[in-house]
Design a protein that fits this description.
Layout lengths: L7 H21 L3 E5 L2 E5 L10 H7 L6 E5 L7 H5 L5 E5 L3 H13 L6 E4 L2 E2 L4 E8 L9 H4 L6 E10 L1 H6 L16 E4 L5 H6 L2 H7 L2 E5 L10 H24 L3 E5 L2 E5 L1
Parallel strand pairs: 3-4, 3-9, 4-5, 6-8, 9-10
Antiparallel strand pairs: 1-2, 7-8, 10-12, 11-12
Protein name: SAM-dependent methyltransferase
Keywords: Methyltransferase, Transferase
Organism: Halorubrum halodurans
Length: 268
């Protein structure tokens, strides 16, 4: 940890305060404008963490009638500005029921309830269902219990959620539920799935090969270790290994990577 890094306890207090504030703004119905590189929209979130996001900027340059898959849509920080004032179709996959509810509220606040197709499911490399650990820090919620308990968070609930392969959804290969209804071949896929990036992309291998969509991937490692320097070093090594495997998989499929911090903009 560098001298400028905040201590772990301070980050935990900050996260706890942020999520309690979000609970309050949603409970009171307090929406505020969020200015982003893709335009301005209204949200009940108290902060605007993706306002100058490089991946959102790349996605905003898509044609105004593009189809975008948002894997790990959270509360709509990408989906909503990309859909607003355009004819784009956004299909948002969000396995966290609480986040999906909030995404729906934010979409309705912007008049986009019928323009953003919110699917309460995950994407991966196998069709089925998995236990999803809903964290008290909602952005930490994941299919992995350890990730859901970072920074002093707790597991608020464990929910069994459906998981689809994007290839099956795009091809219409009989998923059998509304969450798996067929979608048009995507012009872009945004992935923010707390360490499961490779699983999502493996499940979309045929789509990538055939349609060559733009990819925007937020790269996560194995988790954060707080102030324990040995654990932090181990997490850093795990993240490096994960990033190397992800880069190799993309390269083998003809995708180049432009790194913008933790966000990768990948073109085939």
């Amino acid at each position: 940890m560098s001298a400028l890094d905040p201590p772990a306890w301070l980050e935990r207090v900050g996260f706890r305060t942020l999520y309690r504030l979000a609970d309050l703004t949603y409970a009171l119905g307090v929406a505020t404008p969020k200015r982003t590189v893709a335009g301005t929209y209204w949200s009940y979130e108290p902060t605007n963490p993706h306002g100058d996001d490089a991946g959102l900027a790349a996605l905003s340059r898509l044609p105004t009638d593009a189809t975008v898959i948002d894997a790990g849509a959270h509360v709509g920080e990408h989906s909503i500005p990309l859909a607003a004032d355009t004819d784009r179709r956004v299909v948002a996959f969000e396995p966290n029921a609480e986040s999906a509810d909030r995404l729906a509220r934010n979409a309705a606040r912007n008049g986009l309830a019928d323009r953003i197709d919110c699917r309460r499911a995950g994407l991966g490399d196998e069709r089925g269902s998995l236990p999803f650990y809903r964290s008290t820090f909602s952005k930490c919620s994941a299919f992995d219990r350890d990730r859901a308990t970072r920074w002093g968070a707790r597991v608020a609930a464990v929910e069994e959620v459906p998981v689809y392969r994007l290839d099956d959804v795009v091809s219409g290969a009989g998923t059998g539920t509304a969450a798996g209804d067929p979608v048009a071949p995507p012009d872009a896929i945004k992935v923010d799935v707390e360490g499961h990036e490779l699983a999502v992309l493996r499940g979309a291998a045929a789509t990538l090969r055939t349609h060559r969509p733009l990819l925007v991937v937020e790269v996560h490692g194995a988790g954060d270790a707080g102030s324990d320097e040995d654990a932090a070093a181990g997490d850093s090594a795990a993240r490096d290994d994960h990033a190397a495997a992800l880069r190799s998989w993309l390269s083998e499929r003809g995708y180049g990577v432009e790194e913008r911090g933790d966000v990768w903009v990948c073109r085939g």
